[in-house]
Design goal:
CATH architecture: 2-Layer Sandwich
Helix content: 25-40%
Strand content: 15-25%
CATH topology: Alpha-Beta Plaits
Shape: globular
Oligomer: single chain
Number of domains: 1
CATH class: Alpha Beta
Number of helices: 3
């Protein structure tokens, strides 16, 4: 049962990564401002950005069908939880999944994981975003 849930969760994460790769909003953002606030829509301004680490042995072996099922499960729970939590995207590695969420607090993330049957290894609040252009950006 746990392996089935883990596989379903991994599928959810991959589907989110595909959706994120098609999102050009961040790529088109002003490269001089890397703060999380810069990438937050006004309606999401009160939500924090979090990175969730999930230990999931075999995550990288999940099929597209399994990832879709996991994504659907996550979205169903998110709809029930309301507008104070949003899943942005996830990165699937061989044995872990790293998920990026916007949420009012960590409690909502833990409740989402519990309802959807997903593990949480750790939660970290995102403070800022940097990339290669940060090295050459002007600093005021």
């Amino acid at each position: 049962m746990k392996k089935s849930i883990s596989i379903t969760f991994a599928l959810l994460m991959i589907a989110g990564t595909v959706a994120f790769s098609q999102n050009t909003e961040i790529a088109e953002a002003n490269l001089k401002d890397y703060s999380v606030k810069h990438h937050t829509k006004k309606k999401d301004a009160k939500l924090n950005t979090y990175v969730i680490e999930r230990d999931m042995p075999g995550a990288g072996d999940l099929t597209a069908v399994q990832l879709k099922e996991v994504s659907q499960m996550s979205n169903t729970v998110l709809e029930e939880q309301g507008p104070e939590i949003k899943w942005l995207h996830s990165y699937v590695t061989t044995d872990k999944i790293f998920c990026v969420y916007k949420a009012k607090d960590e409690d909502l993330l833990r409740e989402h994981a519990k309802q959807a049957g997903f593990p949480i290894t750790s939660i970290a609040k995102l403070v800022t975003v940097i990339n290669p252009e940060t090295a050459t950006a002007s600093v005021n």
